Amino acid sequence: MGNRIMENNPFQVETEVKLGRNDDCWCGSGKKYKKCHCDFDARLDEYRLKKILVPPRRIIKSPEQVEKIRESAKINIEILDYIGAHIKAGVTTQEIDDWVCEITKKHGAVAATLNFQGFPKSVCTSINNVVCHGIPSHDEVLKEGDIINVDASTIYNGYYSDSSRMYCIGEVSAERKRLVEVTKQSLDVGLQYVQPWRKIGDMGAAINAFAMENGYSVVRQIGGHGVGLDFHEDPWVSYVCPKDTGMLMVPGMMFTIEPMINIGRAEIKISEEDGWTVYTEDGTDSAQWEIQVLVTEDGYEIISY
After folding, report:
1. Per-residue three-class SS string for 92-131
2. What pLDDT shows up at residue 5?
3. What mean pLDDT is predicted for residues 98-112?
4. What whole-number distance in Å separates Cα of residue 238 and Cα of residue 215?
């Protein structure tokens, strides 16, 4: 469930306490403000004066927090690796959910999706024309030629990780194989624009342009999100936005890159039966890969994949 529905007001403008140079820094490092985030905040203030949206302090991760998020991500990666080694035709999506439960429990972790806003399972399984939020079921059996996105999210010691992968079941059609490959390539395209002091919309616009160049469309209503200290944090991440828009990326910021790319039109519909499963409106196939990235001083680090 690494996806976040677009909100009418996805960002909140927040008033933050001004600190004296000799006060303890707000990040919890134990250092004096003047020796920690003082210059960082001054730079953010320069961008604020230019009416550029900057991240609030509450979503900037400290090195200690990042290390704890990495520990959560190790479990999330192990889950997706295990699925990749065992998924095949004849497996039910409930079996996939069972695998996730077993590995999560083994590590003393919690599946972030389970009971999140009423979602009934520990993982999302989205096959063929399901865009996202597919619910595992004993009745849903994988067939030769299917493509499936498995979206895992893990809480470990209170810290969140989130990523998803596409899996091809046996021999898939050339059309489906190309969709899966181009969607994965779109992550690399987007990553080229994940740089500190650049706007997040540059990344989203590059992904959208790449998808369109390949004859595909990108879902508009659902995007990525900040993550790490909570499941869904700011910013909301669009992959159809104009460049030079959106929140400023700064060191310590963490979010998901997870475009949902359709063979056909971008429009989607949500199941009236379960209220969760998102389908392409025209019935064509959709694919998604998701990674969790940290903005660093000189670029990015992939935290979960």
Report:
1. EHHHHHHHHHHHHHHCCCEECCCCHHHCCCCCEEEECCEE
2. 60
3. 98
4. 19
Q: What is the pTM of this model?
A: 0.94
State the Cα–Cα distance between residues 293 and 53, nearest whole angstrom: 20
Residues 142-195: pLDDT tens digits? 999 999 999 999 999 999 999 999 999 999 999 999 999 999 999 999 999 999
Tokens found for residue 123: 């993982």
Report how far residue 58's alpha carbon sits from residue 197's, in angstroms, rounded to the nearest whole number.
Answer: 18
From the list 103, 67, 70, 71, the residue with the least C-alpha distance to 84 is 103
Residue 101: how many other CB atoms lie within 10 Å:
16
Q: What interhelical angle do 63-86 and 93-106 show, nearest 10?
A: 140
Residue reference for tokens 């470990």: 156
Rounded CA-CA distance 135/150 in Å is 10
Region class of 273: left (phi > 0), else alpha (psi between -120 and 50), else beta: alpha
**Which runs of consecutive H residues, i.e. helices, occur in 118-230?**
174-191, 200-213
Question: Radius of gyration of the chain from Cα atoms?
Answer: 20
What's the token pair of residue 199?
């706007």
In the chain, DSSP assigns E strands to 4-5, 110-111, 124-127, 130-132, 147-156, 159-168, 198-199, 217-218, 222-226, 233-237, 248-249, 254-257, 260-262, 268-270, 278-280, 286-288, 291-295, 300-304
φ, ψ of residue 159 to 5 degrees: the values are -115, 145
The dihedral formed by the CA atoms of 68, 73, 75 and 77, expressed in degrees to the nearest 10: -160
